[in-house]
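Case study 2.
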Amino acid sequence: MRYPEGGGLTPERRASREKIRLQAGERFAAGEKTAVIAKDLRVSVRSVERWRRAWREGGTEALRSAGPANVPTVTDGQFAVLEEELGKGPAAHGFEDERWTLARVQTVLRRRLRVSLSVATVWRMLKRHGWSWQAPARRALERDEHAVELWKKEVWPRVKASRRPMAPGSSSSCAVRRCVSCGGERPSPPTCRSREVELRAA
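Prediction:
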């Protein structure tokens, strides 16, 4: 449900919802299952999952009410302080790993600047100041770049050359290809016409 501009919750209703989220937080700490918590608190499983993510990233503080939607925006001076705090890294603020999330930034805002903003507002504020979402590069630490380049230059050309074209007059729509592992021949899968062979360095 979307609320109108200026917020749709009274302070009493907001406090009531916060109380439910904090109860859920206590049960997260006790290790209870999401479905059980949702049933007992009479809320949706999706809401409990969202609260659990926030709790995992920002603790109990992340479950507290962000206040009405029309709270004052963060000033440039306050944002400069926030950037300085973010530059110290998540570990300096008591988080387990070096990964900033919106819930964690929200927690730093509340602790350091005494400003309560929703996660959506935090994201809009960061985007407005030139911050962007970043996905970590997934590359194995043990990857040997020299070996990969060697494989590309020396092994791959031989693999390409060893492919046998489809014999003339064959009724099969699929070529027979040589297995790189054992050297034997094997038929391509039925979908070979629309699928390229993908070889990856180990």
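Residues 28 and 52 are 7 Å apart (CA to CA).
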